NAD(P)-binding protein (Aspergillus campestris), 311 residues
Amino acid sequence: MGIIAVAGGTGSVGRTIVDALVARATHKVIILSRTDRPPQDGVSLQPVNYQDVDATARALEAASIDTVICAFGIDNQAVQDTQLKLIKAADRSACTRRFVVSSFDLLYKEEHVPLLPWAQWALDTDRAIAQTGLHYTRIVSGPFLDYYGVPHWKSYLKPFVNAVNVGAKWAAIPGDGTTPVSFVTSQDMARLVARLMDEDGARWPRVAGIAGQTRSFGEILAIAERVRGGKFSVVYNSLDRLRSGHISFPDFVETGLEEPDPSNEWIFATFNYLSATGNYFVQTEETLDARFPEVRITTAEEVIEESWGGR
């Protein structure tokens, strides 16, 4: 039984992964934290100063950390720099052999850089970790199905509208709504990650895809309308409009962002453009679903029916 440290383990994705690791019970789990804090649901937190690479390496050695899973929400350069320092610390640690880089998103490529600043951060991370002696992987997945169930679906994710607002009965569909998208619940993603931890790091794929369930936004809308018992208010946004950073909503309320300002509109438009152009359809050489068929994948129908049936 190795010891796995989850950096960012108190955040939404990180906490979901911690729960899955604890439930699987094949490894001891601790959470890396910037501050000294009490245990979270029985899991110990190890304080670390990420800005001091040598000190972090010593902390990993002191706790006998075999594997680091980074679950930072990398939305700015400072957080990106922190992950790079954590990679250096893990490489310097005498006992740390494996590293999961923070991703849990689409597979970023050079072509994405003009659209998204964090695409460059992902590419820089891949180049940096390739220079280490660590076994490593990047988890690639499509959007989380949780968003179609919250607040009635148990999830640590914050509410966010991904094209279809099941609760408010409206949708803003990118393109014509027929593009395939690889959906997965955060819980299934975490269970697959936990299962991968049982494998020898030398057998880890550099890119570990999660196929989940393939659906289009049009199909998600149809499921939601059936379960909620009526037609939704729907608008369709063209690819040209989305590419320009603009998007129309039937109602901006409860989208998950604070207000309809230009930066928030750009975030929604870019995400929808990428979805409508096939970037969230996982087609990696190997998927964790196929590798671990015993991990059952939850469907969109199950999430929406369990969350909204009879409401």
Remarks:
- Residues 77-92 form the longest helix (16 residues).
- The chain has two domains: 3-141, 143-184+211-280+296-310.
- The chain has a mean pLDDT of 93.
